[in-house]
Amino acid sequence: MATTYETRYASSPNETKQMDTESLRKNFLIEKLFEENKIHLVYTHYDRYIAGGVMPVSETIKLETIDALKAPYFLERRELGIINIGGAGTVTINGDVYDIDFKEALYVGKGNEEVLFASNDASNPAKFYLNSAPAHQVFPIKKVTKADAEIVELGSLETANHRIINKLLVASVVKTCQLQMGMTELKTGSVWNTMPAHTHDRRMEVYCYFEVPQGQSVCHFMGQPQETRHIWMQNEQAVISPPWSVHAGAATSNYTFIWGMAGENMDYGDMDACAITELR
Length: 280
Known about the structure:
The protein is mainly beta and 280 residues long. It has helices at residues 13-16, 21-28, and strands at residues 3-8, 29-30, 39-44, 50-54, 61-62, 78-84, 89-93, 96-100, 105-108, 115-119, 128-134, 142-144, 150-154, 163-169, 180-186, 192-193, 198-199, 203-210, 218-224, 227-233, 237-241, 248-251, 256-263, 272-273. Its EC number is 5.3.1.17.
């Protein structure tokens, strides 16, 4: 079977602050997203969010349902966000083909039974990063490029966080039930993302780090503002952020990361900022 998945249960702040390095990584880090002709998924009990990846090389790969969904097909009661971080490829939805190139996104609404992934060139395969959340309403399929995105420039080189935020699958660009996704690109010389850090208790988040140069790493910070922890991450890995946790990272080089969110609130700006000097 091309699809594999694992389940991650929710952890409380009190439980998490007792975890050692191995436990933190086991509960929150998604180490393997992409494997040739495979789909790897993680089903988390934070807002029933699913994150994963598919890398079709020599085959067309179908998105199959998983036992945890108890559904005849994957999107029976779910919506799906896709961002390609590899070579050019196609996503075929019920026979309709969508060309998805590097850093382009596709929103797929609830009720679409057949989702197929393929690469244009086996020597430079597509890497489709997937996020999915429960959906209560049907919205149309929509492809979103960086030209379509809502773009915000934040930070500065002086504070090492000069970055471009590309809001791809957000309410101002495409209609979704609760899923939001975007991509933040750090400028050369900048290493900090999402700083000052924040929490948003009404939605959870997943970060996927990529374009991390060979030999470099990202240090991702999580936990309550007064009780932070860190996880060292490599290129093309993801990390789960609970609603009560900060989510910020610094790396040994500039990089790009994808943020995906779901929960009760669709207001992108609904967050509780944490003063840098008050982090512990």
